[in-house]
Write a structure and sequence with these properties.
Blueprint: E1 4-6, E2 15-21, H1 35-48, E3 56-61, H2 65-77, E4 84-90, E5 93-95, E6 101-103, H3 113-116, E7 118-119, H4 120-129, E8 134-140, H5 146-149, E9 172-176, H6 199-210, E10 220-222, H7 223-236, E11 244-248, E12 255-258, E13 313-319, H8 325-328, E14 347-352, E15 356-361, E16 366-370, E17 389-392, E18 396-400, E19 406-410, E20 426-431, E21 435-440, E22 445-449, E23 465-470, E24 474-479, E25 484-488, E26 504-509, E27 513-518, E28 523-527, E29 541-546, E30 550-555, E31 560-564, E32 580-585, E33 589-595
Length: about 600
């Protein structure tokens, strides 16, 4: 069947996309697919929309093998250094007896696969020779995960370290709809589903078109943001496929689209008079990046983006000498009342401190509970308005208000609860043991409070910072190029960033240790880090939180892992807890923000 194409001269723009879809096949061994053509049209429309992707798009529908190769070869050959290109392939994917992946073209013969199919390794080679600085490859076909695993000719163990798979491409990210051994589903395979295209592609389109993938409200969506939204979309529709993400020498984030303004979440029942929706908080040294995804916040001009906004939900807690979450919700603790307040709904952010906790609700109200020796669990409501971020430290608390001011309360013996005048236009905050940090709109960091270990003395020239974390007496900063800086106490090596902390997407700082979540879902730890879980085997982590001496990590499949000190049962995750949107590890307890059905 002849291919239909809509082509443009890609040299006119630096943002270009090639969308290839095959729905009909000459060989009856390959059943006709109804998703690819529709997916291609929808995805191309989203990418080409000036208000969303603003890409120059080339579409190729039902090509033969030679037509597909020529189109890909010509497209990649015209790219130049500085270009951002997207290659999207949808259709049948098959593997031969040796496990090699082939993309099925309209004229591919199953009995002559090597001669008539388009081998994945051929595309790998073309990408290696491409000059484009940033490359995004999206594969929506069965067994598409084999594309990455075959890069070095290895087996289908996709849990291996990313270094073992890395090619020599410059800034390449590969997204696949499934693992090397899984099928990719069309919408009709999902019972009761309203979608009619591929579930994975539908998830990408949904996140870009609706803007919901822009969870930080930055006005733009990265490849990682779009991927995480698609993963959640796939899980929501009950499909048994596992999307994969691979990074080959990526340099910081690749921005895929602008996001359109969207309606805000409704307030909870019986709300305090609404002053507008609020973003979720970042948490202190005992914190997690608020749910999937990740904590990197590229800086913006002419606006103040808040920390990540989680869908409104409720909070559960465990630990603090409670044998179960049921007791935690019903019993005051002998040292501090770590019981979660009853009826706490509409929560968008949580932050666990030493022995107190904070929650931010959709109406901008801050709720506090736990130990209150220094007033850290008693919010100064008259000083707080239109709150956009919260952070709980060792025994002090911080909040960013809608007017850009930072309010602190609780222990101020080190002046950690009294922000300096230099903390202007903050977009993020972190509360440490006796010190505090603020990430400013211009990508710089200001610090205040105790400085015995140099933790409140920001390194000269520190810039292009997109995320921060504060430990007991040390600090972490994530830069736009996905590298990490650290300063402050290094008694246990917590400020000595290892070489493996590259391509980092999120940070967390604990008592005397540090954690980094890489874009490939791997967790790197250094310092006196808690033990009890081999993080190398924790595949596809989406978020992490560092407590005083225990850790939490939310994995790709929605399972919450906890390890480290369990003296107070802070690692005893309640059985059956699901729908987790954010987690936060405190001194001797843990919190989770869960969706309300």
């Amino acid at each position: 069947m002849p291919a239909t194409a809509l082509t443009f001269d890609i040299r006119r723009r630096s943002r270009t996309a090639l969308v290839v879809a095959t729905s009909t096949y000459n060989d009856p061994a390959f059943r006709r697919l109804r998703a690819p053509a529709a997916d291609a049209a929808d995805f191309a429309a989203v990418l080409a929309d000036p208000a969303i992707g603003d890409f120059h798009v080339t579409s190729l529908i039902d090509p033969t093998g030679p037509q597909m190769k020529v189109a890909v070869d010509e497209y990649l050959a015209q790219s130049a250094v500085g270009d951002l290109l997207v290659v999207y392939l949808s259709g049948h994917g098959v593997r031969d007896a040796r496990g090699r992946l082939y993309f099925v073209a309209a004229d591919t013969s199953q009995s002559r696969l090597a001669a008539t199919g388009v081998e994945a390794s051929w595309l790998q080679d073309r990408l290696e020779e491409c000059d484009a600085t940033q490359q995004v490859v999206i594969l929506d076909c069965c067994f598409s995960g084999a594309f990455a695993s075959w890069a070095k000719g290895g087996a289908d163990d996709l849990s291996r370290d990313l270094e073992e798979l890395s090619g020599h491409g410059r800034g390449r990210i590969v997204l696949t709809a499934s693992r090397a051994t899984e099928y990719s589903f069309e919408g009709h395979a999902v019972p009761g589903a309203a979608i009619t295209g591929s579930v994975f592609t539908a998830g990408l389109i949904d996140g870009l078109r609706s803007g919901q993938a822009d969870t930080y409200h930055l006005g733009r969506i990265s490849v990682e943001d779009a991927f995480l939204h698609a993963c959640q979309f796939v899980r929501r529709h009950g499909v048994k496929q596992t999307p994969q993400r691979w990074s080959y020498g990526a340099e910081g984030r690749i921005w895929l689209a602008h996001s359109r303004p969207r309606p805000t979440s409704p307030p909870p029942a019986n709300p305090i008079p609404e002053t507008g929706p609020k973003p979720a908080a970042t948490v202190d040294e005992r914190q997690v990046a608020d749910s999937p995804p990740v904590a990197r916040r590229p800086r913006q001009q002419h606006r103040t983006p808040g920390p990540r906004l989680a869908p409104p939900g409720t909070v559960i807690g465990w630990g603090g000498r409670n044998p179960s979450v049921a007791r935690a919700l019903a019993t005051g603790l002998e040292f501090g009342r770590l019981v979660v307040p009853a009826g706490l709904l509409g929560v968008t952010a949580i932050s666990a401190g030493g022995r107190h906790a904070l929650a931010l609700t959709v109406d901008g109200t801050v709720h506090c509970w736990g130990e209150n020796t220094f007033g850290q669990a008693r919010a100064p409501l008259r000083r707080l308005s239109d709150v956009r971020a919260i952070a709980a430290g060792g025994a002090h608390s911080l909040a960013i208000c809608g007017d850009g001011s930072i309010v602190g309360w609780g222990n101020n013996n080190g002046r950690q609860a009294k922000p300096p005048k230099t903390a202007s236009e903050p977009i993020d905050i972190a509360a440490g043991g006796w010190h505090s940090l603020a990430l400013l709109k211009d990508g710089t960091v200001t610090a205040w409070g105790d400085n015995h270990h140099g933790q409140a003395r920001v390194p000269r020239g520190l810039a292009d910072v997109v995320a921060i974390a504060a430990g007991e007496a040390h600090c972490l900063a994530l830069h736009g190029d996905a590298t990490v800086s650290a300063w402050g106490s290094d008694e246990y090596g917590q400020s000595s960033v290892p070489a493996t902390a590259t391509n980092v997407a999120a940070l967390a700082a604990g008592g005397s240790y540090s954690m980094a979540l890489r874009v490939d879902g791997r967790i790197v730890t250094w310092g006196r880090a808690p033990t009890g879980l081999d993080t190398r085997r924790l595949e596809g982590a989406l978020a992490l939180s560092a407590g005083e001496s225990h850790c939490l990590a939310l994995s790709h499949d929605g399972v919450l892992h906890a390890w480290g000190d369990n003296t107070y049962e802070q690692c005893a995750v309640p059985h059956g807890v699901g729908g987790i949107r954010a987690v936060s590890a405190g001194g001797v307890f843990s919190l989770a923000l869960i969706a309300v059905p």
